[in-house]
Amino acid sequence: MRRAWAVARKEVRHVIRDPLTLVMLLGIPTFMLLLYGYALNFDVRHVLFAVQDRDRTAASRDLTASFVNSTYFDLAADLASGADLERITRLRQAKAILVIPERYASDLAAGRSAPIQLILDGTDASTASTVLGYASALVAEANAARLTRIFPEAAPAPASPDGARPRVWYNPELRSTNFLVPGLMGFILMLTAVLSTALSVVREKERGTMEQIRVTSLGPLQLILSKTIPYLVISLLASTLILAAARLLFGVEIKGPPGALFLATLLYLIGALGFGLLVSTLAESQAMAFQVGALLSMLPAIFLSGFIFPIRSMPPVLQALTYAVPARYYLIVLRGVILKGAGLSPYREPMLFLILYATVVIGAAYVRLSREGTAA
Asked: Among 82, 273, 322, 345, which is disulfide-ready with 228 (CB 3.0 to 4.6 Å)?
């Protein structure tokens, strides 16, 4: 073990002396969190909104005001009765157009149904669905407020025909940041951990110092320990910086036990570092190691982990592939601990997979390094 610790100390000194490595391991994770944390946001606000009010009454103005005052919509145009609505959406002057028909107020006063029309730009289906939900909720609230004014002695109407009242747990404001930041942490840690170990070993190959290390009779297991322990410590420090930035900048609070979060992150990083070692046995240059490591770590962590896209909506073939992606299981635990305040007991299966994944990739790296040492 003395030889392993000696190589580990050498690796630490190299990291300290190399500012680029420090930036990659500590600066890039924080920068990526800031970039993606602010850029990736599924909350739909300030939708450009036009109104064609053909009634021009107090009731129609109240309905328009309910949309504008909600902060979901920004009034972009007040259209005349004969305006070309298709041209408005085609020129992107508005993504939603509210059409209030004539006799809207008189129909309401007479107790008759007063249908209104909402025209949406459906080129972005996700945004259009969200806007439609907002508009339906605003119209329902406007109707409830009108009934309360007309019949102040009457009890408030139920939230839905069957009396159900929705209640959102864990993320009551439905902030997409609370969902995305844990996913960003899994993606960033996987990418930086894989690249750090992959580039470290390949750098030794390019400089010819790998042969000197093998001359010291350093075994594959000792080489794995010497190359992973320094970067494991640095990656844990990077995860702490990410969590601190998420708390200070995005208001994402860790509600669960820190020990559970630490253990899950430790297992995840061990697997990522082991995968980086495996990549280093396949690459002969740092450029190749970077390309292979980034491709095999970044793309699955983004597209096949449930970070952005729901796994259940994927085709069956891709759903089967997600079982081999460690970020999928890490995100389940991460979101459970951070958002739900849970410990590890509900997540035994994801934790077992993280253990299995770390064991498999480190075992494969051990076999490959043994073969390289024998060949040398």
From this structure: 273
